[in-house]
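During the second half of the funding period, the structural biology subgroup turned its attention to how the target accommodates small molecules. The most pressing case was alpha-D-ribofuranose, which had performed well in the primary screen but for which no bound structure existed. We therefore specified the complex as follows and requested a full 3D prediction, including the ligand pose.
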Amino acid sequence: MAKLRLEDVADAAGVSKATVSRVINRRGYLSQKTINLVERTMKELNYRPNAIAQQMTTGKTQLIGILVPNVANPFFGELASALENRLFKMGYKVLVGNAQNDAVKESRYLQQLLNHQVDALIIATHNHNVEEYQNANLPIIAIDRYLRQDIPVVQSDNYAGGKLATETLIQRGATKIIHTDNLPSNQHDTQRKVAYETTMRSHQLTPTTYLTNFYGDHTDRVNVFNQLFDEHPDVDGIFASNDTDAALLLQIAHQRGYHLPNDLQIIGYDGTQASQLLAPDLATIVQPIANMANVAVDLLESRLKKQPLPASVVLPVTLREGATLRAK
Ligand code: RIB
């Protein structure tokens, strides 16, 4: 049987070759009716566009590389999912890398993504010294981290979030407030810690921070948090820099007999759907994850069209009330 050609699809669908090509490459204005018709015809004929030929005509692979520190973390899992959803609707496919805190792994992923001729990259990892970012000659958007002067960053307002969490605990009567933070972190989410410390001092309160390793195992966190309660049994407020840590602190506090929110109040950070489902009592600072993904994709589109971009976009955070906080 002769190999199917683009014109066979065009004839069967009753449209021009150019329309079939535009549907395949998602170029120019197309009504949903035309997209459906051409896609249905391709399916009926079992026609598969040749990716290499496609790439040669458009100069594009319609592939976007996404690198996150850890897909198992609900924040990054939900972020990657929101990015993929939006990009897929736009006709892209994504390749997602789980960089962890391994510069060699991140660099290999990057080389691989560049070898696959991705059209652009969205980067939300923690490594700051990966050489490929300096030389990568293609559109890049960063989320939550600084990569290079000309690479725009999409972030939530980490300083405002840290301040809101700390002010809220103080307003609800806590005075011995401890912050837990992760290392490595980046310049942006470190702002949560800076805001916590500044707010504490502005209320003549002493800041204390316990650090955990973002990539460390569960037992390490349990040990650090138990140490926190051993060393500060009178702690009456905790601001945790992410919801998974906040949920663990909540569990340990219950085991140790604290009654929340009467003798201890806890606020997390992130506000993921997973945390809302698994720890519905947890009050938290909500990052607008879906909006961060949308803005990153908007910026990517503008960059692909060679339009000028802002150095950064900072999105507002909100407080989600929960039973781990006293009422206003
Ligand atoms: O939970 C993961 C955390 O790491 C998030 O708060 C995100 O902003 C990143 O810094």
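Two results from this model are relevant to the next phase. DSSP finds 13 helices and twelve strands in the chain. The chain has a mean pLDDT of 90.
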